[in-house]
Amino acid sequence: MSKGGFRIIGIDPGSIACGYGVIERDSRKNLVCLAYGTINLPRNLPLHERLLRLYHEIVIVLKEYRPEEAAVEKVFFAKGIKAALNLGHARGVVLLALAEEGVAFSEYNPNEMKKAVVGYGKATKEQVQQMVKVILSLREVPLPDSADALALGICHLNSRLPV
Q1: Catalytic amino acids?
Q2: Residue 161 phi, psi (nearest 5)
Q3: Taking the chain (163 residues) in consecutive chunks of 10 residues, what is each chunk's mean pLDDT?
Q4: What is the three-class DSSP state of 131?
C-alpha cells in the first residue's frame, strides 16, 4: 500500500485515446487525485503499433504510481464491428499490463460509473467531467477520457472502501 492511503488507477481503454487517472483515499478518507491524462495514439499507425505504444505507456504509468488496484471500463458499445474489435484489443493490452505489474482489477460498465459519480446512470459526459472536477477538487475540468478514468477510480474506491 502507498504511504498516503489506498491507491487506485482508473483506465478507460481505447485504441486511439486511452484515459487514465490515479487517485488515492488518504488517511482522513479524502479522495486525492495524483495524476490523470490521455494516452493519444496516432490514427495513421497500424493497430499493432498503436497497441504496442499503449502497452508501453500504461506500464510507465503503473510503474510510476504503483496502484494497489485498477478499475477498467467494461466494453458495452461500439460504433461498429471494427471499432468493437479494436476496443477489445486495447482492453486486452491494458489487462496484460495490469497482470504483468501484479495489479488486480475490477470492471464497471458506464452506467455504474456514472451513477457512482453523478447519481444518475444516464448522465452526460459533461456531467461526469464536472462532477469529477468537484469531487477531486481539480483546478480544471478533465478531458472526457481522463474524466471517465477518474470516475472509474472514484466508483471503485467508493465500492471497495466505503467512507
Answers
A1: 12, 73, 145
A2: -130, 80
A3: 76 96 90 97 96 98 98 78 86 97 95 93 94 97 97 91 53
A4: helix
